[in-house]
Design a protein that fits this description.
The structure holds 2 protein chains of 2 kinds. By secondary structure, chain A is mainly alpha-helical. Helices cover about 65% and strands about 5% of the residues of chain A. The chains are: A mainly alpha, B mainly alpha. The interface of A and B includes residues 168, 191, 201 and 205 of A.
Chain lengths: ~400, ~180
């Protein structure tokens, strides 16, 4: 058993989980509120100041710190912190944890309890296969040879299929939540979720087959290496100029499917407030509701990371040395920075779309999935395969 | 410290993982049959699929493992659940032991067990599974499509599936124009 591998994997998993939770709180919740406020001409969260009184709880130095903070730091920083709502996510978290954890009488207790976990866990697990950077060559630190660390937790050779499989498991959480609630609106939400997820999973799977045809492997690091050597797969202008429209179409279909799989507007039919109260999570409150909430946002982050990895070059940037595997710590950190920036940009688009688009009707959603997106994805595969075949023959 | 490491190493070996997954598969499989509630049965079937997928991973068949979860746990079972919920099937009532069903069932079970044991007994099983025994997605694809040995059966199976699909559409259509 390779202990170095286990320890490095645990450390990476801890860092990625921490980063994902931070991204959930800030790139997700706070940005979502602020952007929606800007779009609807509101101000958004602007009331929570620095937690100065809490500092008094520090032993010995507490009162002095609190006094210092109240007289010097708070007047300076509070306008900014309040205005951006920077402390708001933390306060929301405390609220979710301290609220009464209420379980209604008529529910199926076992499924009611495990449903939020089934939504939350798969969305976190997907993050394990996504390469969030090239390498970090640590070398020897404090007498321990750490060596060069790959910036991915699990470099599976079927990475993309693994993540699709895990994504498809998270639907059970929503379906079971709807069923276990033993109440009409959650039930309808659960039923909708199961049909919607299965429909768009097909389109999602088929939309990336062209990538496999071009790259020739399922490993996500391999796909990024291909993009580093040639060009980003959203527009492969260097090697396959003819495939430009097809790959762009693939990217569009994949993005639509990610929206549907993560239940983002305009595809949030499972919890359509105007029709279903709050859909599958109507009967939930406090931390159990927060689990659904976190699961949804982390799935959104994972979806954005998938779009970036598959179509937008992952951690690469086609300028200078940024396309090569990192040989110094700084280059490695730059790659992580590039990846995070791209993911945040996609997340921003996702939030933006949510507040600009009206919700589909359920039959429109199914119609779009089965009669428009799916046939286009299949034809697209045929076109790409034919072009690649003739390229190969020539 | 060394002792702890030894024990942990022993626990994490290949065999232990095999027994854990095999036990999970079998136990969940039995629970599928014995559960009274159809939703519980379906959920245990999902766990059975996950156990089987774990066994595939131990055989280095990562592609099959991923597809097992993607297709069976992720799509087929979701549709099962969809139908169970849509038809609102309640808890099963106490079972009546039907003599005819009991005899035919146990005879069938005994026969299949004998057949399985005989096959395992006669088969020339390879000892030890190396990293190349089953291999990558590429090998699987080559075997199915490029080699040509399995191409015809593979395509024929897909034809059977297509026929089944058409049959369902035909049955569920109320009137045929």
């Amino acid at each position: 058993m390779d202990w170095g591998f286990i320890i490095s994997a645990l450390v990476k998993a801890g860092i990625v989980f921490g980063a994902a939770m931070t991204a959930f709180a800030y790139a997700g919740v706070m940005a979502e509120r602020k952007i929606s406020a800007a779009i609807q001409d509101r101000i958004g969260p602007n009331r929570v100041p620095l937690p100065t009184p809490l500092m008094a709880a520090v032993p010995l130095l507490g009162p002095i710190l609190a006094k210092l903070s109240a007289t010097f730091v708070a007047p300076l920083l509070n306008p900014v912190i309040k205005g951006l709502g920077l402390i708001q996510p933390a306060v929301d978290g405390v609220k979710a944890f301290t609220k009464e954890d209420y379980t209604p009488e008529h529910v199926n207790k076992v499924y009611f309890w495990i449903a939020p976990m089934i939504v939350f866990i798969p969305s976190v697990v997907i993050l394990a296969v996504i390469p969030f950077g090239s390498t970090l060559p640590f070398g020897e630190i404090a007498g321990v040879d750490i060596g060069t660390q790959k910036m991915v937790i699990a470099d599976l050779n079927v990475g993309i299929l693994f993540s699709f499989g895990i994504v498809s498991l998270s639907v059970y959480g929503i379906v079971l939540a709807g069923w276990a609630s033993n109440s009409k609106f959650p039930f309808l939400g659960g039923i909708r979720a199961s049909a919607q997820m299965v429909s768009y999973e097909l389109a999602m799977g088929l939309s990336i087959v062209p990538i496999f045809l071009i790259v020739g492997e399922l490993n996500l690091s391999g796909i990024i290496n291909y993009q580093a050597e040639n060009s980003w797969l959203i527009a492969p202008y260097k090697e396959h100029l003819l495939l430009l429209p097809s790959l762009f179409l693939s990217c569009a279909i994949f993005t639509v499917a990610i929206f549907a799989e993560t239940n983002r507007l305009p595809f949030d039919l499972p919890e359509a407030e105007t029709e279903l109260v709050s859909g599958y999570n109507t009967e939930y409150g406090s931390m159990k509701f927060a689990m659904f909430f976190m699961g949804e946002y982390i799935a959104m982050i994972a979806g954005a990371a998938m779009i970036v990895t598959l179509f937008l070059g992952g951690w690469t940037l086609p300028f200078g040395v940024l396309d090569d595997q990192a040989t110094s710590i700084w280059a490695g950190l730059a790659h992580i920075g590039i990846f995070v920036t791209k993911v945040v940009a996609i997340l921003w688009v996702m939030v933006w779309v949510r507040w600009m688009m009206p919700r589909f009707r359920y039959d429109q959603l199914m119609d779009l999935g089965w009669r428009t997106v799916l046939p286009i994805a299949i034809i697209n595969i045929g076109v790409v395969a034919t072009i690649l075949f003739f390229n190969h023959v020539k | 410290m060394d002792r702890i490491t030894d024990i942990l190493n022993g626990l994490l070996t290949y065999n232990t993982a095999f027994y854990v997954f095999a036990l999970m598969t079998l136990a969940c499989g039995i629970l599928v049959v014995t559960s009274r509630s159809p939703v519980t049965s379906a959920m245990f079937l999902v766990l059975t699929m996950i156990g089987i997928s774990g066994l595939f991973v131990l055989l280095n068949a990562y592609f099959l493992a991923a597809v097992q979860i993607l297709v069976y746990a992720g799509a087929v079972m979701v549709l099962f659940l969809f139908v169970i919920m849509l038809l609102n099937i309640g808890e099963e009532e106490e079972r009546q032991w039907n003599k005819f069903a009991l005899t035919t069932g146990s005879t069938g079970f005994a026969g299949l067990t004998c057949l399985l044991l005989l096959t395992i007994w006669r088969a020339d099983l390879p000892t030890g599974i190396g990293s190349t025994t089953v291999g990558s997605t590429k090998n699987l694809g080559n075997l199915l499509f490029t080699d040509g040995r399995f191409l015809l059966p593979f395509e024929l199976v897909s034809l059977v599936l297509l026929a089944a699909m058409m049959g369902v559409i035909l049955l569920s259509k109320k009137e045929i124009k």
